[in-house]
Structures are given as structure tokens and as C-alpha cells.
Amino acid sequence: MSQEQWKSKIGFIFAAAGSAIGLGAIWKFPYIAGTGGGGAFFLIFLFFTVLLGAPLLLGEFVVGRRAQSDAVTAYKKFAPNSSWSLIGKLGIVTCFILLSFYSVVGGWIIIYLFEAIRGGLNGLSQDQYGALFGELIAKPWSTLLAQLVFMLMAIVVVAKGVQKGIEKASKIMIPALFILFLILVIRSVTLDQSIEGIEFLLVPDFTKLTSESILLALGQAFFTLSLGVSVMVTYASYLPKTQNLPFSAISIIVINILVALLAGLAIFPGVFSFGMEPDAGPVLIFAVLPAVFSQMQFGVIFFINFLLLFLFAALTSAFSMLEIFVAATTKHDKTKRKKRAWTLGLLIFVLGIPSCLSYGVLSDVLVFDKTIFDLFDFTVSNVLMPLGALLISIFVPLKISKSALYEEISLGSKSGKMFFNVWYYLLKYVTPIAIVIVFLDVLGFLDK
Ligand code: PHE
After folding, report:
1. Probe target for ligand 1 pocket from 224, 234, 255, with the most ligand atoms within 8 Å of CB
2. 4: in domain
3. Residue-range definition of the domain harbouring residue 314
4. What is the pTM of this model?
5. Is there a domain that residue 372 lies in?
6. Helices 211-224 and 385-399 meet at what angle, rounded to 10?
7. Does residue 437 lie in a domain region?
8. Structural domain tally of the chain?
9. Membrane-crossing residues (predicted)?
């Protein structure tokens, strides 16, 4: 059965950038940067994105485009009768777990949107915003309902298919996200004391950098680019031979860095202008940001603006997590897509119920000292994703011939050859070694 294709080159770039831009850039990045040294963290994140993230992204693109098939079949095509297709299966399981708790946060965005629109976020004190966040996410029924709504939005789009669903939605949501961001950043950098926040993000102070923040920056670089789970393999499988892969990868890297920058510029100037602390951690967006906006004129409107762009970012990532699963189970049989999207999407919702409730009725349930949400997050972000990334970086140079790789990547010029060599050796040596170091560290092996 023939494989569906993206309708346009730019459609693919929006969809892949949509997968990349998500909670990672908008929620995690500001709070990790906030606790991990601001500008210095940003620089290290940039360094890892370019040196390690970019080669792996291009590697996943090559696998997908050359194989023209879903994440499991793709690896089988290069290495028949071997266990390498486990990489694809690992990616699917990882996305399954990831989306189950990702959708919980997606639900929180919807709850906050609802609260902001009905006026429930007006005029509280900073502490009250913190307390409100705790209260809102502890309510079982509304959080579950919001999580379900988030999943339904993802299901409806993915069920429509690659072109009519994912591509079309991304082509609207990603440009809209940029426009909403620009409005917000203009507001933010024109605040009276915005300069302190801008300096915090852009002027590196290396004394604030710890080995922990360096490792977080590496994990963040992979997470925000959706690497290691074969999502980018799946998206690239819908590409024709004419697409320039290095150009696509570089565009996505640039867009992703830009979004992290915009997120920082939208958030830190306000945080500093209104005398709040940047290092609040994971609650930065939900407990500190509403307090920041409440002090601005028309603040609620700006906060709604922020929540909308946040929702678009989370949704376009959710599409990719569901799509990898749908693609692998339908094997291009278009007649099965709708049914699979609904069944798998609802199953993911069910798996996400304990994570959702772990902020309320199940908050006492601890496994390895972590709540269910934290356990899932830790397993995915610190174990499964780096493991997948490591395996892909080993697989590509090992199982795909150098000439085939060159064919996919070279642009037919001399500079193409140099680019290829830099890419090839980075992927073959630097990426896996860096991942192993991070891996050993998160698992506690490098502790003194
Ligand atoms: N890149 C997404 C984000 O930053 C997360 C993601 C990881 C999406 C893996 C798909 C696959 O939020």
C-alpha cells in the first residue's frame, strides 16, 4: 500500500517543528534555565543542540526518508532478521508513556484557559496563585476531563491523516504560535525593568553553572527536538526524495532555538520587573506567571495569549507522539487510520489517569520515592529517550552504508562532502559518547 506524503516542503517543516516545540521549550526550558544559571544554561543548551542534537535529527531524517516506512519497519529494512527494529518499538512505548502524562499538562493548560476566560485568575496575591495551582490540579474530575479534551483534540487531527490532519493543523498552529509569541515578547521587553530579565537570559554567568545543569541542558536538547523515539523517522518517511534533508534539519534547529529564546524573553523580563524569582522550578509557568501578568495592564489578555500558544505547542507535539503509533500499527492502510487513532488515543488517556490523579487523590502513592507522574517523566526523559538516542546514533553509521548516507545527505557539491564528513563523525563518535556520560550520570553512576 502506498505511503501518504506531505503535501508541501514547508508543511513538513511546520509539522516537525511542531513536534519539537512543546512543553520542553515553553515549560521546561524557562524553569530549568531559571534554576540553572540563565544565560550560561542557554549557551550550553545551544552548544548541545548544534553539536549533538542536529546530527541525530539528521540521522533520524535519513532513516525515515530512505526507508519510506513506519518506525518499526524502517529499521527492519536496513537490518532484516535482526533485533534492531526494537529501536522503533522502544520509541513507540516511550511515546505511549510520554503522551499519557504530557496530556495531563495539556489538560492543565485547558483548565487555566478556562479559568482565565471566566475571570478566576484576577487580582490574587502571589501566594494565592501558588495555592490556586495546587488546588486546580488536585481536583480529580476537572483535570481528567481536561486531559480527555486535550487527547480528543489530538485524536481528531491524527485520525484525519498526514496531509489533511497533521500538516494542515500544524500549518495554522505554528505560524499562529509565532505571532502570539511576538505580541507577548513585545509586551514583555517593553516593561519598565525588563532589562534585568533580558540580561538574565542572554548574559552568561558561568559561575552559576553546575555539572547538574550541564547534564540537564543535554537532556533538554534531545527532548525538545523529539529525538530518540523515532518520531522524526516517522515524519521523514512521508518525504519525497527531492526534500533537502540538511536544510530541513537546520530549519528545525533554528526554529527550536528561536522558540526557546522567545519563551525566555516572554517570561523573564516580567518575572524580574515584578520582583519575583526566576527559580521557582516546575511551577514557574502556572504559579508565578499568572502573578506576573496580573500586574500588567490587560494582563489577563496577555496570559490568555500565552496559554493559547502553549496549547498549540503542546498539541502539535502530541500529534507526533500519537502518529508514530498509528503509523506503525496501520502500516499505511488508510482505512484503518481512523479506528486506530481513536483506540490508541483513548488507551493513552486511560494510561494517563494515574499520572493525572497523582497530584490529588493519588499523591501519597510513591514508587521509588516518586509520584506516578514523576516516575513516568523520569523514566521517559532520563532513561528511555537517551537509550533510544544512543541506539539510533549507533545504528545509523553501523547499518546504513556510507554511500547510501552520502546519497541522502550530500548536496552534490564539495562543501556537501565536508558537511557530510562533519555530520558523520559527530554522529558516530561524539553523540554516543556524550549520551553514555549523561546516562551514567542520571542513573547515579558518576556520583562520588
Ligand atoms: N519535543 C517535545 C517537547 O519539547 C517532546 C517530544 C518528545 C515530542 C518526543 C515527541 C517525541 O515538548
Report:
1. 224
2. no
3. 9-442
4. 0.93
5. yes
6. 70
7. yes
8. 1
9. 12-33, 39-63, 84-114, 144-162, 174-195, 215-238, 250-276, 296-329, 341-362, 382-401, 422-446
